[in-house]
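Team,

Forwarding the record for the chain on the shared tracking sheet. I've put the sequence and predicted structure together so nobody has to dig through attachments.
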Amino acid sequence: MITDCYDVKTEPIVNLRDFYGKPKHIVDICLIIFSKDIHNYLLDTYECEKIGALSTCGGDIIIYKMNYKGRDVAFYLTGIGSALASSMCYETHWLIGATKFIMFGSCGSLDREKTEGRFIIPTESYRGEGASYYYAEPADYIEIKNSRKLSAIFEKLNIPYVSGKVWTTDSMLRETVGLVEKRRAEGCIAVEMELAGVQALCDFYGLELYDFLEAGDVLESSGYDVEGLHDANHDLGKLYIALNTAALL
């Protein structure tokens, strides 16, 4: 059972030292980016320096450093899904020493009325994926520890937002009517694919995660509305929210 995978009694066999050597410290804050358009915009707009690379058999994922308002900030284009996003977060920490990660992506709204025109700051995430069970004891939900701190930053920046529970799923194709209704009944206002795993990993290794979302598609019992997904995926507005958050941390 997946709920049996939290093992802190024995040592891991695989160690990042075997792949990357000793851990390094170059920068404290790193953006986790999902949009190729946003990633390319940063490279085209700012002076960016390559400071590391995540090695995969499919090719390297480059980690860059830029400066924003006098603060060095790293960024990389992450993989989609809880397992990839969580492992890449820790590999990045090993390679550049970042301990504060700002993750911002799109999500599906489960409550159009609450999320329309507002960003979403998750307070808890339903663990409907697999990676989190390797890093945290079994439970239905995981607390998003820095949600209040991020909310205070949003208020300081005068950014409209709503706080609430979200649902992390491993399969958008299995977001059934029944599961949507269950999560809505528990108070979830959005669904995404990374947060529970990345939060569990950050808790396990003592890293800080700051996560916010922008609703694109809407999942309702009456049907599926995909109209806003592209804009939510690639919105440069949330990039500058992330950068201004980094400047305030």
